[in-house]
Write a structure and sequence with these properties.
single chain; mainly alpha; three-stranded antiparallel β-sheet; two-stranded antiparallel sheet; 8 helices; 7 strands; 9% strand; elongated; Antitoxin Xre/MbcA/ParS-like toxin-binding domain-containing protein
Length: 224
């Protein structure tokens, strides 16, 4: 650290800056701190602590630089690492399941939901966004990224264009612990808590409480 004056008296103001080894080459420290001396005792204490502060700040900067370097290396490595055959096969199967869900049950865009409900808002996504924020419904990324760079809402969540109330109860049961596509898979997969291992999606209207109870049991198990 550097100070503007070597002798400080009460009321003096001075500046300290983090030490930079390359300062002599014209670079400047990115941050400075202005301090006011309260009294002679504070002045002595502050002067005595400057070497320690200098060392601690240097160690902190070095640690931050190292962490950022590790993050950059991880970021680049993740994109350079070729997936294994097993990973490719798993990804392909999962993508097929995602596509099957949208093909079987259909989906809505936010704009379509606005139109179905006669929304007059200039922001055509506002209605769906509001439902989503309240956890009344959820959206999934459309798998065809070449055609749609947006999220869509699986249609089984709606009846006459309105959110099915049981869906909100299920989302509250999981409390944000399931990613959107995992939620879609939960709704559309056979569930041992339901009679005949039915799919929750098939009972959303006819037996919503059974679906809600199954979600709560599964949520308890995943949280354990």
């Amino acid at each position: 650290m550097a100070k503007t004056a070597s002798h400080m008296l009460q009321g003096d103001v001075f500046t300290v800056q983090p030490y930079r080894a390359d300062r002599g080459h014209g670079s400047r420290a990115g941050r400075a701190f202005v301090l006011e001396v309260a009294d002679e005792a504070a002045s002595s204490t502050l002067l005595a602590s400057l070497p320690l502060l200098d060392r601690l700040l240097g160690e902190k900067i070095a640690a931050v630089r190292e962490r950022r370097m590790e993050e950059m290396v991880d970021f680049m490595a993740a994109r350079m690492l070729a997936p294994s055959v097993v990973e490719l096969e798993m990804a392909q199967r999962l993508a097929q399941r995602h596509a099957r869900i949208l093909n079987e049950f259909g989906f809505f865009s936010a704009e379509q939901l606005a139109d179905a409900n006669g929304s007059q808002a200039s922001n055509r996504t506002a209605l769906a966004d509001n439902w989503r924020k309240r956890r009344q419904v959820f959206a999934v990324p459309h798998p065809d990224k070449a055609a749609r760079e947006r999220d869509v809402y699986p249609a089984f969540q709606f009846e006459n264009g309105k959110p099915v109330k049981a869906v909100q109860e299920v989302l509250e049961a999981f409390g944000g612990r399931k990613a959107p596509w995992k939620l879609a898979l939960w709704f559309t997969s056979n569930n041992g808590w339901l009679a005949g291992s039915a799919r929750p999606v098939d009972l959303l209207i006819t037996d919503p409480q059974a679906v809600i109870d199954a979600a709560r049991r599964d949520a308890e198990g995943s949280a354990a």
